Amino acid sequence: xxxxxxxxxxxxxxxxxxxxxxxxxxxxxxxxxxxxxxxxxxxxxxxxxxxxxxxxxxxxxxxxxxxxxxxxxxxxxxxxxxxxxxxxxxxxxxxxxxxxxxxxxxxxxxxxxxxxxxxxxxxxxxxxxxxxxxxxxxxxxxxxxxxxxxxxxxxxxxxxxxxxxxxxxxxxxxxxxxxxxxxxxxxxxxxxxxxxxxxxxxxxxxxxxxxxxxxxxxxxxxxxxxxxxx
Length: 230
Fold this sequence. Notes:
This protein has a five-stranded parallel sheet. Strands 1-2 form a two-stranded antiparallel sheet. The protein starts with a strand and ends with a helix. It is of the alpha/beta class. It has helices at residues 20-38, 44-51, 57-68, 81-96, 103-109, 161-174, 186-197, 219-228; strands spanning 5-7, 16-18, 72-74, 110-113, 131-133, 144-149, 198-206. The longest helix is centred in the first third of the chain and has 19 residues, at 20-38. It contains eight helices and seven strands. Helix 1 (20-38) crosses helix 4 (81-96) and helix 6 runs parallel beside helix 7 (186-197).
C-alpha cells in the first residue's frame, strides 16, 4: 500500500493521492477492458500492439475512433493524475497512427469532479485541459463509458450528519432494491454512484479499501457486484 498511495491529507478530508505509474496502469487497463467489449475476439497481444503503435494505420485509426466515441470521468479528481494520464495516453495513441486529438474533444468528453479548487489548479496548466466541475460528484447527475479514480476514504462517523443523510438519500434512490447501511464509509457511496453512472458496457476502475469485502455496510456492494456486474 505504501508503494501505491501517497497520503497527504487529514482523515476527515479523505484525500489520498495516487502515483503517476499506478494511474497510468489503471487508465490503460480501463481502456483495454472497454475496447475488449467491442472487440471480444482480440487478444492481449493485439491491444499491446495497439498501444505500442505496431498495428496497421487503418486498424489503429479505427480503434482511436472507437475511443473518441466514449466519455470519461473521474469522480474525485484531486490533482488530476488520472485525467492527465488519460489525455497523455489518448494523444500518444493518436500520434502513433497519424492523427491529432483535438482540444475540443478533450473538453467535451473528459470530465472531472472535485470540491477543492486548489487541488485541481495543476489541470489548468495543461495545454488541453479537460472539463472540470467544482462540485460534489455524489450530488450531481453524470454518466460515462469509463470511470476511473481514487475516491475519498472517510469513516462514516467523521461525516457531517446532514451531509451523510443527504448522500444516503440520493444514492439510495439510485439503487432502490439495495439496503444501503447508514454506517457506510464515504467510498461506498462513490462505488454505488459510479456503478449507476456507467453507460452500457461501461468500465469502472477505482482504488478502494478492502473493508467492503467483510463489513456489514459492504453487503450492498457485494450484492450489486454479484447480481448486476461482471
